[in-house]
Please model this.
Amino acid sequence: AQTVTQSQPEMSVQEAETVTLSCTYDTSESDYYLFWYKQPPSRQMILVIRQEAYKQQNATENRFSVNFQKAAKSFSLKISDSQLGDAAMYFCAYKHGSSNTGKLIFGQGTTLQVKP
Amino acid sequence: DTAVSQTPKYLVTQMGNDKSIKCEQNLGHDTMYWYKQDSKKFLKIMFSYNNKELIINETVPNRFSPKSPDKAHLNLHINSLELGDSAVYFCASSQGAGGPTQYFGPGTRLTVL
Model:
């Protein structure tokens, strides 16, 4: 069974600095997607970034980028120029690529604090 | 325009009651989901529907019964509520179960007293 692990329950970063959130996963599949979702205090689940396993290039969305290491099954999120609005809980998630169920498997989450 | 909406956003009720949560999406997606986020913030899928047909039931007690009247709606009915049902319930949708991205509703915080 696939699993997703986030080993950092909490992280903090100074405003304007860079922070990296870690995620590892376990799967025997070769076709899958990985995601980072952000959950601010409003509790809305917001998609931050998506990575297709078949793509070697790391995904980037403005200040957010990932370091996807397929062999190591590692998928970290880097937030550059951190802003106060980045403070939230971040979830790493996995989905089998050709899933006929669409099931997302989530990690435990990392709470990010941004200090002014 | 809200893409995935849920009602109500908050629900407080007594043990033993029956309650429903409604979900609607206007994205034209054909697959919808219910996820449960427990008190430790852990998210887990409960149900998945594709074209109004159930495709996942993740060992959820049969007190929980999803109903999909059409592709744009997926409701969750809970019978005989228990204290352990207190959680945040999220609805989500995607284009096909194989669709790469799921879009989430705002969540419904259910509190059982």
